[in-house]
Amino acid sequence: MDLIISILLGAFAGWIASIIMKTDSQQGFFIDIIVGMIGASLGK
């Protein structure tokens, strides 16, 4: 269950970060997930 929540929160965080950095059109959904999960793991 933690993995699913981590993926969803990572996708949301990555999506928000891509909008803030204005790279939303350059990246896909999966890159947003990966970036968000890396950020979440670094923040722990």
Task: Report on the architecture of this protein.
This protein is mainly α and 44 residues long. Helix content is 77%, strand content 0%. The chain has helices spanning 2-20, 29-43. Helix 1 (2-20) packs across helix 2 (29-43). It is elongated and about 30 Å long. The model has no long low-confidence stretch (mean pLDDT 74).
- Provide the β-strand percentage band: under 5%
Our count of helices gives 2
Low-confidence stretches: none
Q: What is the helical fraction, as a range of percent? A: over 70%
Q: For the CA atoms, what is the radius of gyration?
A: 10 Å
Give the terminus-to-terminus CA distance.
Answer: 18 Å
**Mean pLDDT, rounded to whole units?**
74
Shape: elongated
Summarize the main sheet. none
Number of extended strands: 0
Q: What order do the SSEs take from the amino end to the carboxyl end, as H and E?
A: HH
Q: Structural class, from helix and strand content?
A: mainly alpha
Question: What descriptive keywords fit this protein?
Answer:
44 residues
Topology, please?
Elements: H1 2-20, H2 29-43
Helix pairs in contact: 1-2
Concise description?
By secondary structure, the protein is mainly α. The chain is built from two helices and no strands.
